[in-house]
Amino acid sequence: MTEEVTYYAELFKVLSDETRLKILQLLSKNQLCACDLIEEFNITQPTLSYHMKILRDKNLVVTQREGNRVLYALDKENVDALISFIQSIGTSKHSVS
Question: Are 11 and 17 in contact (CB under 8 A)?
């Protein structure tokens, strides 16, 4: 298995969580602060921090501090790379023997 496939296999594990997928969906529309995400999901700060750390560690989300607030946004470059990888699967012409 190539490094790229290994990387995306790990990424798909991260994306298999419903909460993390919904976070990404929300961030695809706007950057949001932690307080907005906590309200959206009705979860605790530690739970949100857990999910955001996983998303940041896989370079799907970036943070920006604005005063005492932390704003979250998609890491567009890495999300676009994920999309390209998925599209390459659909367009690959492999023969089955």
Answer: no
The single-letter DSSP state of residue 17 is: S
For the stretch 19-59, pLDDT in tens is 999 999 999 999 999 999 998 988 899 999 999 999 999 99
| Residues contacting residue 75 through CB under 8 Å, at least 6 positions apart | 59, 60, 61, 62
Measuring CA to CA, which residue among 12, 8, 5, 20 is closest to residue 54? Answer: 20
Beta bridge partners of residue 58, listed in sequence order: none
18-to-12, 15, 25, 50, 55 alpha-carbon distances in Å? 12, 8, 10, 14, 13
Q: Please, which residues bridge with residue 32 across strands? A: 72
Predicted structure pTM score: 0.84
DSSP 8-state class, residue 94: -
| Residues in a beta bridge with 63 | 72
